[in-house]
Fold each of these.
Amino acid sequence: MKDYIATVVKNEKIAENIYAITFDLGETAKVRCGQFGDMAVGGTHLLRRPIAVCKVDGSQVTFCYQIKGEGTQKLKTVGAGTRLNVLMPLGNGFYIEENERKVALVGGGVGVFPLISVLRQYQGDKEISAYIGYRNQGAVCGVDEFAKADKFVAVTDDGSYGEKMNAVQAFEKELQAGNRPDVVLACGPTPMLRALKTLVERENLNCYVSLEERMGCGIGACLVCVCDKTDGKKARVCKDGPVFNAKEVEL
């Protein structure tokens, strides 16, 4: 990891309450899909904000974030040319084994963005299907990226875009049609991941999940982001994760 003083290239709204900020690091970015960055937002906000990497193009790295509190409210006002500290890459990302040819991506909420990084890294090498759930039509984003998958199904909670269902239900519908992947990679709200874990255990599918937790330091020192493992032990989401085998963590 490296603490960059990165230059903002653009910072724009891409959906309802969702923004994308692109930094130029000044050198070729070496980031694995599923990793994240910890960025300063300026002003009086001392704690950095951990945000998953969405995509990498040479020296430019794009993060997508949802407006939730004062920190992200501050971040959305940052303009092009501003220089911010960004500590990255952090955490353990997604890995797909050589023998895992068919990959299913299941995502919801801001969890869709790290899955874009998976698609970009493995596109062409794997057969990738994406099952992506949004709250409503206003929250739909990233469609141009997911459209590059071998199969892309977008759904919404209210049926305003695609079918009325969530991402797990869309994936389950595909399983019922006999289309089984070799591995499932997922990121999204905890209730979504909990439902997915129940499904993949029933179907005996290998599944890896990227957890979303509040973080302080982002490097495993403060223990703010500790999660429970199924063996009774604890794990730091920032340092030991954020990607875990679904069998290993309590959801």
Amino acid sequence: MRRESREKVFQTLFMMDALGVGPEEAIPLFALASNSPSDTDYYQETVTGVWDRKAEIDALIGRAAEHWRIERMAMVDRNILRLGVYEISYGKDVPYVVAINEAVDLGKRFGAEESGGFINGILDKVSELMDKKMSHPENAPD
């Protein structure tokens, strides 16, 4: 159930990136083109949460992907990373290991041959950065 909803979140994020639209346009558009996600609360909260925190998420991806600029990443990888970082950073009920594994699976399914390894490496680095960040409460995300 969550896996299917997570896939729909990724597809919506991809559509938003490709069309340059926000969730208020993308969610109804996606609903016209696809069946509703089984976990609609998770879907809407996650799409909106990634959108609202996109600058923070992209900055974190940029820190973790030392020699890659986010705008040069494949659109599939970039949006899977955004979803993964959101779940690692803000997912209340998603252990970071699950977030990474699910993102790697999406990368293998929708991305290029090397996407799974690329996504795994960056999200692993993000989880390290977040652990360091969480050890200093003044740096914790809101």
